Automatic annotation (TrEMBL):
Keywords: GTP-binding, Nucleotide-binding. This is Septin. GO terms for molecular function: GTP binding. The keyword Nucleotide-binding applies.
Length: 422
């Protein structure tokens, strides 16, 4: 057999070379996240707590540079009420669903002891709604409107003296439920020297009452400097205004007085820009995160524990949700059975009691009947005796009557005989 030589094409000619359409790598993940978040939008919920007329609505208008058109609250409410409004805001292509919750009638009541109750209840209700959604079988957390409060601005009255008891009590009740940011309201009514003393006193009182106010995060290297500086300036002294004044060739938000103008955005006039920077620009995401990771987590833990769930059993060994659920079901059944037995026993006991009661009554009735029967027999006998006596008397009477009649007749006959003899 003759060998046939086959000619092969060179190897390089068979390899297909393709050009990449773009960069390949997971370093695009953050961009994907940004695109997704931008598309779904953001939610931010602010709670304003402060006495009536403290400038809450004005500050919200100033903060978001818009007019939310709110009406002044009445002073005559019997209790504190919370009113919430949701607004859809858009800046470039970022959508923000902003909810502003206002404490209406806060501090207006004579007894201010439980002013915080309505606020605590509101915050818990929002946590509860979220928990219910989380526990659903078909949950849709991405479409869910999260109404949990991310920031609570506590408006301190600019008295210059210190915090009122209502402020201390309320902030203490809220510090484990929400990010409390105390601010000095209407700071234009307080002088510069007074303000720094006032701030120090507030911080001192907050510390001595062990109130955990929100601290801007200092764990991020890029933000550590500015945030720690801002933490030292809390509580921010703010001024709000809905009026605009021309300064140079610009219209700025300001409050005009006969002696001058307070510019809201002027850092030497008040801390408004610091608050806006910290609240909206720098730490909005951190507040959302702290709300979810700390405050909500705490609420969830407490609720699940009161429902009897725990991560570890009595022997300190991990137990699953399923095991706890099964155990609870068994306990529940046993409890039901115990209650049923208890009720049955009570029923039998009651029936027996009733039976004895009825027997007693029956016995009593028989006794009464016997007495009545005896009395009746005696009465009958008495009447019969009486009747017999009467009849005897009647017979006697008849007899006497007859005698007398006979006597009278004989006497008459005798008298008649005598008169004839004469
Ligand atoms: N001096 C001063 N007055 C202010 C400031 N902010 C608001 N005001 C005035 O205080 C009054 C009440 O302001 P609002 O913003 O309606 O106060 P509020 O807390 O929303 O009041 P209610 O909703 O009724 O509880 C208005 O006359 C405002 O012009 C401020 O920073 N300084
Ligand atoms: Mg208002």
């Amino acid at each position: 057999m003759a060998a046939v030589a086959v000619e092969r094409p060179p190897v390089e000619d068979k390899v297909r070379t393709m050009k990449l359409g773009g960069h390949v790598g997971f370093d695009s993940l953050p961009d994907q996240l940004v695109a997704k978040s931008t598309q779904s939008g953001f939610t931010f919920n602010i709670l304003c707590i402060g006495e009536t007329g403290m400038g809450k609505s004005t500050l919200m208008d100033t903060l978001f540079n818009t007019s939310f058109e709110s009406n002044p609250a009445p002073h005559t409410l019997p209790a504190v009420k919370l009113k919430s409004h949701t607004y859809e805001l858009q800046e470039s292509n970022v959508k923000l669903k902003l909810t502003i919750v206002d404490s209406v009638g806060y501090g207006d009541q004579i007894n201010k002891g439980d002013s915080f109750t309505a606020i605590v209840d509101y915050i818990d209700k929002q946590f509860d709604d979220y928990l219910q959604e989380e526990l659903k079988i078909r949950r849709s957390l991405s479409a869910y409107h999260d109404t949990r409060i991310h920031a609570c601005l506590y408006f301190i009255c600019p008295t210059g003296h210190g915090l009122k008891s209502i402020d201390l009590v309320c902030m203490k009740k809220l510090d484990s439920k929400v990010n409390v940011i105390p601010i000095i309201a209407k700071a234009d009514t307080i002088s510069k020297a007074e303000l720094s003393r006032f701030k120090q006193r507030i911080i001192q009182e907050v510390k001595s009452n062990n109130i955990q106010i929100y601290q801007f995060p200092t764990d991020d290297d890029t933000m550590v400097k500015v945030n720690s500086e801002m933490n030292n300036q809390i509580p921010f002294a703010v001024v709000g205004s809905t009026d605009f004044v021309r300064v140079g060739n610009k219209m700025v938000r300001a409050r005009q007085y006969p002696w001058g103008t307070v510019q809201v955005e002027n850092e030497s006039h008040c801390d408004f820009t610091k608050l806006r920077e910290m609240l909206i620009r720098t730490n909005m995401e951190d507040m959302r995160e702290v709300t979810h990771m700390r405050h909500y987590e705490l609420y969830r833990k407490k609720i699940l524990e009161t429902m009897g769930f725990s991560d570890v059993g009595q022997d300190n060994q991990p137990v699953s949700f399923q095991q706890t659920f099964e155990q609870k079901r068994v306990e529940h059944r046993e409890e039901l059975q115990r209650k049923e037995d208890e009720m049955r026993q009570t029923f039998v006991l009651r029936v027996k009691e009733k039976e004895t009661e009825l027997k007693e009554v029956e016995k009593e009735l028989y006794t009464k009947y016997d007495i009545l029967k005896r009395e009746h027999a005696e009465e009958k006998k008495r009447f019969e005796d009486l009747k017999k006596r009467l009849e005897d008397e009647k017979t006697e009477f008849q007899k006497r009557k007859h005698q007398i009649a006979t006597q009278t007749l004989s006497t008459h006959t005798l008298t008649l005989g005598k008169s004839k003899k004469k």
